[in-house]
Amino acid sequence: MNADFENRLQRQPIRELPRDWRAQILAAAADSPKGRAALPRRPELGRSSSFALPDYEMSGLRPGEGVSTWPSLRAWASLAAVWLVIFLLHSTAPDEPRLARNSTPMTMQSFAILHAQTLMMAELLGQTDSTDFRPPPAAPAAAPKPRSEIERKQLIG
Amino acid sequence: MASAPNIELLYDDHAPALFAFLLNLLRNEADTYDVMQDLFIKLGRRPALLLGVRDERGFLLRLAHNAAIDLIRRHEARERNYAQLAQEPMPLFAQSADPDERIFREKLAEALGELPPEQRAVLHLKLWEKLTFEAIAETLAIPLNTAASRYRYGLDKLRDRLRPLYDEIK
């Protein structure tokens, strides 16, 4: 049954290729125009489309297969333009890092610590008579002093 | 060194098979013409594409299939009723003087139009190009089992659809 049916189908001849197509198609192929706008179409046949065989079809790839890796001048140019814009924006940006701009100002406590460290450095360098350094009036009395200074005072005292 | 193939010889050797395959797939003469023209134009521009190709017919059928599927998808994106258009009566087979044969061919063309293009492509290559499943799988870039199953499903549908008529005129 299957074989009979298949044989029956195989015996059905498909229509012949229209003879006038040969001259038209070969003429178009011989002209080989650069632009597709010059190609003759057959609108009289109905439901014709603005069909263009994609270039990747000529590679033997399946539709959609490997399209992302196929070289496309426009795509690569767009990518290069995006990178150029990113580079220009980066090179023209101010040098000050955003983190530094957003950092909190120095507090009074940290200022007192810095002052104490400066005093200690002056003492170590033998500049004990430093009247230039005065603690700020608002400096808290309980500002922590470096452990080394405390120990030194205890030894001297 | 092998020379580039002559485009006219290529046309004479393969255009009838490409026409039949594309007409069966696309179900439209204008689309078939457009795909064939583009195929030969690009072969004319780059004849070296065929250098080293062992099976010219298989290579060209594969290109034609890819282009046809691509066109069908674009049609489907634009026209939601493209599948319905594919089922419209279309003279796929040669005319016959025998009324029974003529009716059978009309019904067969209709039944083929109801199949998905993937099954139609396999059926065409097997029945009318007489390719093996291995060759079909290579041409359509599908696994061998897929080619065989598509053929079986497609043939079953055709048989179910045409059984009353086939039994009657057998």
Radius of gyration of chain B: 17 Å
Secondary-structure element order of chain B, as H and E?
HHHHHHHH
Number of helices of chain B: 8
Strand percentage of chain A, roughly? under 5%
Helical content of chain B stands at: over 70%
Coarse structural class of chain A: mainly alpha
Which word captures the global form of chain A?
A: rod-shaped
Looking at CATH, which topology of the largest domain in chain B would you report? Rna Polymerase Sigma Factor, Chain: A
The biggest sheet of chain B amounts to: none
Short description:
The complex is a heterodimer of chains A (157) and B (170). Chain A has 157 residues and is mainly alpha-helical.
Keywords:
A: 157 residues; mainly alpha; B: 170 residues; 2 domains; 74% helix
Question: What this model shows, in words?
Answer:
- The complex is a heterodimer of chains A (157) and B (170).
- Chain A is built from six helices and no strands.
- About 13% of the residues of chain A have low confidence.
- The longest helix of chain A has 20 residues.
- Chain B has 170 residues and is mostly helical.
- Chain B folds into two domains: 86 residues, Rna Polymerase Sigma Factor, Chain: A (Orthogonal Bundle), CATH 1.10.1740; 77 residues, Orthogonal Bundle (Arc Repressor Mutant, subunit A).
- Chain B is globular, with a radius of gyration of 17 Å.
- The interface between A and B is large, with 43 and 56 residues.
Write the layout of secondary structure elements.
The complex is a heterodimer of chains A (157) and B (170).
Chain A: H1 2-10, H2 20-31, H3 73-92, H4 98-101, H5 108-124, H6 147-156
Chain B: H1 7-26, H2 29-45, H3 56-78, H4 82-86, H5 99-114, H6 117-127, H7 133-140, H8 144-169
Helix pairs in contact in B: 1-2, 1-3, 1-6, 2-3, 3-7, 5-8, 6-8, 7-8
